[in-house]
Amino acid sequence: MPAGKPAGSGPLGSTAAHSDAELLDSDPIVGPKQPRNPISRTRIEVVASRSVAGVGVVFALQAMPIMLAQAPVRVPVMGLLAPLLLGLSLAAVVVAAVTKVGVRASAGTVAMLYLAALLAWPMLMRDPAAVLDGKPWLWYMCTIATACAALAFPVFWAVIYTVVVPIVYGVVRSTPSGGDADVLLSSLDTVYAIILGQVILIIIFMLRQTALAVDNAQTNALHQYGNAVRQHATEVERVQVDSIVHDSVLATFLAAAAAGSPKAAELASGMASDALTRLNDAAIVPAGDDSTVAFSELSAQIRAAADRLPVPFTVDECEIDGLRLPVHASEAILAASVQAMVNSAQHAGTPSFEPDRALTMSGNARGGCTITIADTGVGFDPELVPAERLGLRISIQDRVASAGGSVRVRAGVGRGTTITIEWPPAQKGGSE
């Protein structure tokens, strides 16, 4: 693993860490109680508060003429103070709904002031025994009070409020100061107010629960995505480490141990030099490097690697002007190509037989490149390669796959081996 770079420290790992750092955010109405950024819940709260505020203004304007008409039969100071306080608190709800600050506090104030005004209604009449002409103007504010309670209070207390307040109004309605309505009429008004208040409460509660479920699903999805990103980053680093270990360490040791001629010793020395270069590059090249490399540069590096091998390769190269590959893809293709040629040099021949070997580099119809390493050697059965052998699976197939490419292996005992590296991947990859 590159020095100073723990698992998951690349751009993907950084993204996951950044996501975890943002798991908590503030709700502009409720406060920092929802995980991450509760987009759905926040929008529902804003829509509900602004709807209640808008409807409240309409009902207040509807009640104002009746309030002015009933003002002469009310105690002058208290008769004007209650409407003023309710009007100011309703205006505070409008401002809070627009600014998204203090919505629940202002809505709760409206609900409590309305209940206080309702309880004090009989005591604020000039003549408590006189029968009021018509309904009290507070009737037109009852729905707004219950809606504010549904917005401001927990569900339990909101349910109690939407039942108790209409009952209190029904009692007031049956008194002379409330119009001296008969039991049937006051009961109908009470039931109507209870039903309307409960409907509003249910709508707000269901919207909140739905939004909460959406936000929780979003948070769970982000957690799962973060875990998948970290696992992917870890897997990519594992492939890189396994590849470097196999290519740079094991292969160098094996080449050095088998060096029985000056050419073989030169090969081992070159492999050791390449191993040091690759280890240094792995430590200093950032995982998120989005620069590109010309295909001509990549093909020159592959051709130079083939020239350093102790066995000859027939090189067939097709120049493609303007073709460029991402750095990470170029590095993966180069390393996999070199490993495929090393495998051919080490395993395709026998002491009495040296096969023909070919290296083909060209573009493909997908705007990428195709590298083919083929020989007419002894071949092998890909299905019988042990899992602990890293050369084909890790150093070639997994490495190219981690860079967004694919590898096709066509081999058979006595039929030679052909390894085709495609980037971007071909429509159908795998081993044949």
Put the structure in a nutshell:
This protein is of the alpha/beta class and 432 residues long.
Keywords:
432 residues; alpha/beta; six-stranded mixed beta sheet; 11 helices; 8 strands; 60% helix; 9% strand; rod-shaped; disordered N terminus
Describe the structure.
This protein has 432 residues and is an alpha/beta fold. Helix content is 60%, strand content 9%. It has 11 helices and 8 strands. The chain has helices at 11-21, 39-70, 76-99, 103-120, 142-152, 155-173, 183-257, 262-284, 295-308, 327-347, 390-402; strands at 292-294, 314-317, 324-326, 357-363, 369-375, 406-411, 417-423, 430-431. It has a 6-stranded mixed β-sheet, covered by helices on one side. The longest helix has 75 residues, at 183-257. It is rod-shaped. The chain starts with 10 loop residues before the first helix and ends with a strand.
How would the blueprint of this fold be written?
Elements: H1 11-21, H2 39-70, H3 76-99, H4 103-120, H5 142-152, H6 155-173, H7 183-257, H8 262-284, E1 292-294, H9 295-308, E2 314-317, E3 324-326, H10 327-347, E4 357-363, E5 369-375, H11 390-402, E6 406-411, E7 417-423, E8 430-431
Parallel strand pairs: 2-4, 6-8
Antiparallel strand pairs: 1-3, 4-5, 5-7, 6-7
Largest sheet: 6 strands, mixed
Approximate shape: rod-shaped
Portion in helices: 55-70%
Number of strands: 8
Order of helices and strands: HHHHHHHHEHEEHEEHEEE
Q: How do the strands of the widest beta sheet line up side by side?
A: 2-4-5-7-6-8
Strand content: 5-15%
Average pLDDT, to the nearest integer? Answer: 78
Low-confidence stretches: 1-36, 283-288
Report the radius of gyration as a whole number of Å.
40 Å
User: What is the SS-derived class?
Assistant: alpha/beta
Q: Number of helical runs?
A: 11
Distance between the termini: 32 Å
